[in-house]
Amino acid sequence: MSQIPVIALNDGAKVPQLGFGTYKIDPDQTADAVRTALEVGYRHIDTAQMYRNERGVGQAIREAAIERADVFVTSKLNNGFHEPDDARRAFDGTLAALGFDYVDLFLIHWPLPTRYDGDFVSTWQTLEEFKNDGRARSIGVSNFQVPHLQRLARETDTTPAVNQVEVHPYFGNREVRDYGHEHGIVTEAWAPIARGTVVDDPDVTRIASAVGRSPAQVVLRWHIQRGDVVFPKSVTPQRIAENFAVFDFDLSDDDIDALAALDKGEAGRTGPNPDRFDNLHT
Ligand SMILES: NC(=O)c1ccc[n+]([C@@H]2O[C@H](COP(=O)([O-])OP(=O)(O)OC[C@H]3O[C@@H](n4cnc5c(N)ncnc54)[C@H](OP(=O)(O)O)[C@@H]3O)[C@@H](O)[C@H]2O)c1
Fold first, then answer.
1. 36 touches ligand 1 (CB under 6 Å)
2. What is the pLDDT of residues 131-158, one digit of tens each?
3. Catalytic residue (one of 23, 42, 51, 102)
4. Which residue's CA is the closest to the ligand 1 atom numbered 35?
């Protein structure tokens, strides 16, 4: 664990810069995958109500006999629960499923600007309650665009600690990252290896050969050197270990620029555009 840098959040908490993602890990496979990750040394696990695998995350942490304080656990409010009473019930459900009395970080998963009469402000104020009562050590958002962040800044008292958004060499998400840098909001880069698609890219494989590392390691290292938080997902033990071994080499500024130049703008997204995404049932 000690080899993983920590990033300071705007509320004084600290998050390990590299964690383990759990999207699309089958609930029945989750405890095994998280156990492997903890054995490798990961101490930051990213889950969500939507993934339906919080129970397996909590189980693996308890069975590993790791102190709760030594693992950073994030979960996220599902899209159907933005109304305050629903959010309160859903958050109770997250803690019950994990089997913990707090999470390190709780996020609004999607802003859903075309739902709930465009109101994500009352949802955010409900997350402020969870922070104030200590059951969420930090609170943040996910998939928020710049106007959504500006609205929270105008209408609420708490700046999100993080904004978890899609970022990888094919989708730089520059405006959102820049806004975060300027306002003390840490960017967490989801789909850091573009769901596996970036590992065959000729520029990525060229740099990987030159530095003697795998393509996934090179792309994860790129994120780390740019200062973002990442949590690659894998159910493959060899890859879980490979993705963790990214702290004993450096990329040159030219390599970093070459990977940033792969940005395809909107065409590079693997996921939906948050301005339009409105699915309550995922
Ligand atoms: N907030 C949000 O809306 C949001 C959205 C998406 C994701 N996330 C979070 O971000 C995490 C990461 O994103 P993601 O899971 O979408 O995508 P990702 O981590 O970029 O990619 C995962 C895919 O890459 C493969 N892979 C993993 N390591 C590899 C390696 N070393 N070499 C080649 N392929 C490799 C995995 O296959 P195997 O598993 O078969 O090994 C899997 O198919 C998620 O798990 C979740 O925690 C958040």
1. no
2. 999 999 999 999 999 999 999 999 999 9
3. 51
4. 196
- In this predicted structure, what is the pLDDT of residue 282? 65
pTM of the predicted model, to two decimals? 0.98
Report the atom number in ligand 1 closest to the C-alpha of 47: 47
Within 13 Å, how many C-alpha atoms sit on residue 26's CB side?
4
Residue 234 Cα to ligand 1 midpoint, Å, equals 6
CA of 129 to the centre of ligand 1 (A): 31
Please tell me the predicted confidence (pLDDT) of residue 1: 45
51 is catalytic: yes
Ligand 1 atom showing the smallest separation from residue 164 Cα: 1
